[in-house]
Amino acid sequence: MRSIQTTMASMLACMLLMPSVAGFAQQGAKPVTADWGKTVDPEQAEPFRGEHQAGIVTKPQHFLYFAAFDLTTSRREDLVRLLKAWTAAAERMSAGETAQPMENGLQLAVPPVAAKTGDESEATDAASRTADTGEVLGMPPARLTITFGFGPTLFNKDGVDRFGVARLRPEALIDMPNFGAIDQMAPERTGGDIALQICAEDPQVAFHAARQLARIAEGVATMHWVQTGYRPIVGDRHLLGFSAEEKVPGMNSPEATAIWSGKEGPAWMRGGSYLVARRIRFAIEHWDQMPQIYQEQAIGAMKHAHGAAAQNSQKSADADFVDEGGSPAHLALVSQGRDAMLRRSYSYNDGINFISERWPPWRQGLEYDAGMFFVCYQRDPRNGFVPVFRQMANRDYRLNQFWTHVGGGLYAVPRGAKPGEYIGQELFETK
Known about the structure:
This protein has 13 helices and 9 strands. The chain is of the alpha+beta class. Strands 5, 6, 7, 8 and 9 form a 5-stranded antiparallel beta sheet that branches. The chain has a 4-stranded antiparallel beta sheet with strand order 2-3-1-4. The radius of gyration is 24 Å and the shape is globular. The N terminus is likely disordered.
């Protein structure tokens, strides 16, 4: 009797769930891409194609999955096929579709034998595997954006021009300088031939996109490092407890035009931008023991209105807040380059790890592995991130003891793909 009741309860649960799924599929009535036969609420989908890549001046989503890939092939045609396959899959997923048509099975960008010999006749059949892992079936695209960037090693790695594009490397795609004690960049968290900034309003949607692109790249590219991140549902405070005070301009606003590459660079980068990513670990336990007045003097702002400032606005209180010891506050230093960069950062929390602190009390032990995944876009990092961060490294005395840069990279983000194009096409078709 009990098993019958259990079975009936399970059937009832399934029946209750079915209308909600069906109802979801019918909301929003206009299909974003009619050819794929799926209706998606247009407000849930960000356009993939355009003059610029999505995910730069797009309103920031709440979740990030950043993945840097290393290419395991040295054949130019393999790389082109990968970018074509990635472009097609990214466009489909951005519109709420599976990465590839489900009826065809998994289609690798480059069949295994072809990746090694150029002979596709002996390639093993990947079509027996599912075209999409399926963890977001029935879910909206959650404003998914996938932004592609090319690292310096794509153009020249260990002195080798693997893909015949070294001459087209932009001057702005520099080898990032070392900034001293706060720069402790771990090789296993730094660089990469190609970087993907994947953002969405659902963390599972973001991870799904990275997972599918990694599957398609099998045999020609592998993940080098990844980082997840998140933004608060309300406001923009980071883990030190202060507002990030970021501003995302509109596509054609004066601020936005300052981040797009122009005629100063190669033709394939015009309309693109340069992405700097930095994994910044905060010494949270140490920070939490500091007096509030110290924290506010270090940042150059009030954490919340208090004392006489409670009678005024938060903004006016911040404007009058200075470090009486003469040390420049963090916000005063970074504001000097505010117009040269578009910040698009996320907090991260990777649990705990064994940490050796760089400053007194030089604690060693298990501490939070958490902080900020700093992301910024600019027309030229030599006029944006580099001078601003050099100021921070040399003069941000009060704050530098509470953070360490442990990974990241610089990437050239080409312009958006027009209909029929693949990301970075102009780079590989330049004569």
